Amino acid sequence: MAKPPTPPTARGTRRSLPPQALPWLGLLALALALPFFMSVLPWLKAWPVDWLLPLADWINAAMDALAPALKPTTRILSATLEWPMLALRDVLQWLPWPVLVLAVLLLAFHASGPKLAVICLLALLYIALSGYWRQAMNTLALVGIAVPLSLLLGLLIGIAAQRTKIGARLVPPALDVMQTMPTFAYLIPLLVLFGFGPVVGLIASAIYACPPMVRNVHLGLSRIPGEIKEAATFAGSSAWQKLFWVELPAAMTQIKVGINQTIMAALSMVIIASVIGGFDDIGWEVLSTMRKARFGESLLAGFVIVLLAVVIDRISAAYASKDSTQRTPLLAGRIGYCGGGLLLLCAAFKLSGFDPSITDPAWAKAVATWLDTRLEGIVVAYGNALTAIKNTLFYYYLLPLRIGFSQAILPFTWGFDFTQLMRWSYAIACGVLALGLSWRSGWRKGLLLAALAYLLYFGLTGMPWLVFGTAIILLAWQAGNLATAVFTGLALTFILVTGMWERAMLSIYLCGAAVILSFLLGSALGVWAATRERASAVIRPIADTFQTIPLFVFLIPVLMFFQIGEFTALLAIIAYAFVPAVRYTENGLRQVSPELLEVATEQGATPWQIFWQIKVPLALPTIMVGLNQTVMYAFAMLVIAALVGTTGLGQQVYLSLSAADTGAGLIAGLSMALLAMVTDRIMQTWARKRFAGMASTAH
Amino acid sequence: MTPITPALECRNLWKVYGDNAEERLKQYAPTNAKQAAECSTALSAEGGIIASGHINLQIQPGEFFVLMGLSGSGKSTLMRCMSRLTEPSAGELLLDGADFLSAKPKALRQIRRQKMGMVFQHFGLFPHMTVQDNVAYPLRVQGINPAERQRKAQEMIELVGLEGRENAYPHQLSGGQKQRVGIARSLAVDPELWFLDEPFSALDPLIRWQMQSELLRLQTLFHKTIIFVTHDFMEAVRLADRIAIMKDGQVVQVGTPQDIVLNPATDYVAEFVKEAPRTRIIKVDQLMQAAPAATTTTFNGQALSQDMTLEDALSWSAERAGELPVRDQNGQLIGVITPERLAMALGNTPGKATSNSDRQSAQPPAGVNS
Ligand SMILES: Nc1ncnc2c1ncn2[C@@H]1O[C@H](COP(=O)(O)OP(=O)(O)O)[C@@H](O)[C@H]1O
Ligand SMILES: [Mg+2]
What we know:
Mean pLDDT of chain B: 86
CATH class of the largest domain in chain A: Mainly Alpha
Number of strands of chain A: 0
Radius of gyration of chain B: 23 Å
Strand content of chain A: under 5%
Number of helices of chain B: 17
Order of helices and strands of chain B: EHHEEHEEHEHHHEHEHEEHHHHHEHEEHH
Helix content of chain B: 25-40%
Number of strands of chain B: 13
Shape of chain A: globular
Structural class of chain A: mainly alpha
Oligomer: heterodimer
Distance between the termini of chain B: 10 Å
Largest interface: A-B, 20 and 31 residues
Distance between the termini of chain A: 29 Å
Number of domains of chain A: 3
Low-confidence stretches of chain B: 350-370
Helix content of chain A: over 70%
Structural class of chain B: alpha/beta
Bound molecules: adenosine-5'-diphosphate, magnesium ion
CATH superfamily of the largest domain in chain A: MetI-like
CATH architecture of the largest domain in chain A: Orthogonal Bundle
Shape of chain B: globular
Strand content of chain B: 15-25%
Low-confidence stretches of chain A: 1-14
């Protein structure tokens, strides 16, 4: 497996091709030959239906068989979870909002200080005054029950993963699947087992949100210095004493990070689960107004979600980073007074009979209407421009990626026909260019050009599966290692034989299109932020806030300007996925040691040279992590984007959700998880090989 | 004199890292030094790491025993085997004459709670507990009530001179203060057997010196059986009753500091000794000769004392000549020495006759702790 990591010099490649180029040459020959046989051998283009594995039917049959047996259990579980959730909801609704606002204010003050308290005050005031308090509290009730469940689950699994051999083997891959599995896919089997209702959202959130807790508990426990554990052992602690008195408290800093992440994941999932409907929560409010195209209202409601997320995140993050050995002097020892005061205030409200709650306030209506008319005005005024943007991107970027020049170039789209002559010219021109490039700068670059030309000609959906699959496996093998290649092969085979190939290609296409744009946009912003302090000061907090917003909300603004469709989905994905590219690019560039830059400046390098020859190569490992994250974010958002009209696996999951089709939903979900995992593995093993030993020079 | 039961005894103790180390050791079953050497070579060839090989040591009650060697020589491993933080691969371990390796987890826990304390190189303090709670922790696991815990912890904190810092957290303390907490914690249960693994290596030289003095003071108070690991020969010489010098998992020499300085067993040991200030380590009783019967009568109180260092003895005898009397702590005349003989000890040809017998032996020299 040992390959020379250094790229071959131009001179070396001119004479002889290295052995790793040979399989690619074979593949290229196959790829060029296949299109001529596709009409004769149709299975080369699409995997025949007869050859499919009816896995979905089997799952459904198993589910049908199991469901009656499980029903009594699930009903009991459902009731045990529903009761505390409804109770919590009633309490939250019963409390006059000023009391709760004040309580949160004190909490924020205790967690961090006056600045956070003011932020929280403003946020909560907006929620109360906009008339969405009731919906927000319903959402909070779901989160309030899902989070403790999730934390407990995460704690137990995390301890098991760290302590037991089985746990150490099983938990990490399970977490990988859980975190890449599309969110809706969680809901389907639960719906079949539990029936429609908020409890499904609750359970789904509890399960969905526990991986960060598991990871951080595991990490925290593993990072405790050996001497601390030995000191506990040597004091004669029993296993329990050691765990609860020493290890968990010593790992608490890390565990708190997990708690914060779990809370945010639970909130995100609770909002997503509102597609099930029936709980009058804030997610449902956004979704239903969005469906009715009342964007003013859904924007106002969406803002409630953002603020809720910000408040919860900031307070829990403040507690997480707070040194528990320090106390906020103002509140120290006054918990009793604070609680008493709040109770008194609450009693005053209840006894006086004054109900402060606000529903459908006039100002919100007015703002919503104003927003709607403004929006309409914009759409009318700039309709042509918007359509032009959309069409340009669609015809010249999305379509070639999806169906290739061979079909995308039409008089209707590009304004001319793709004649036979042009096709041959394209092929020959690309061939000559590829050859020339491999001659000059190495076979890899030539190959890359050839592959791109091929891809753009046939499009991702028009490419023979054999070619695409083989190319990815080869890539996994040479960029990664044999294990990566085997995993990739198995994953692609699963997708192929379960009949998900076409949808998978559609997903890859949309995801790829979004990743390219997100990464370009994100890294450009990252570069800007890394070079200008002022830009950084603006971009950082925005990026931080974007990360906490539940994915759902990103749909509103894009949907306002562009109707349902693939283009809207693309924009929504970009809006979510560009953030990691910004962050990691900035961090990577900032990490480059100033000494190196000084040396380069002294040697007379221009700023441009310094950037491309020193900064970028040194920041590359970090930037690659950002790219990887961008891909993962894009996959996560892909499913949510199915709500606004995409084809592909996301849509399949969403359709299965409405049809409660467990088999199809799970398979589509799993296919998506596999795609994400394959990409992740290939990128990570490649980065590990490529950047091995670079860590020391980067700092 | 009835033989004293050693506080801790290792008999042919082994710790080998590698696949099936226990099995392989059982097959070889080395019993003497020659077989042990063969076994070590064979296991190393198979890729095993002999972290401790064929260790035979007896540590007497109240003895300050130091394990000394370069980093990686297996000191920590041996100490951890002695305390069963790591399980030895083969051999016997006797605690107060009783088999220690067969103690079940519960019994082991009980032994640790009552008999053992340990101080770690990087302190091993619990970051989430105050100084007070750290020191009280070994009492807490035993279920001792809070008031009693607090009292005992306070006593220990005062003992190590940290009064006033009871409510500080470890991250608020300096390195020296942290190690004081570590010492206080390890002494809280009043252990008989006290393990210290390079406790002062992470400290600045000046603080290290202070802490060594502190440790010697504590030892004169408590007379614990101490097993102390260090890679610093001077530290070993200053503290130890006896030193075991380790190399590649083997003990190459055991003896009192003077034994080792006067008669290094191998070049490896000699390398350490070279750096040592001989004049401050060698004592008069190592150099003196038996008193001729005639001198006994002329002894009039003006004499070298038995435990005088060479340095002091030289300055004392500078103006004198002839055979000078040497007396023991009780004032009894026990030998004579000439200034010439003292001066000769400055070189590298020490009086072999006196200490050859002690070399390589695991027995403490007569007079220690009796
Ligand atoms: N858990 C382990 N696994 C494998 N080898 C180990 C382990 N612990 C220690 N060793 C090896 O045993 C030898 C002795 O280590 P150690 O006792 O820590 O030395 P010292 O404390 O004298 O520096 C070293 O070569 C070390 O690499
Ligand atoms: Mg060590």
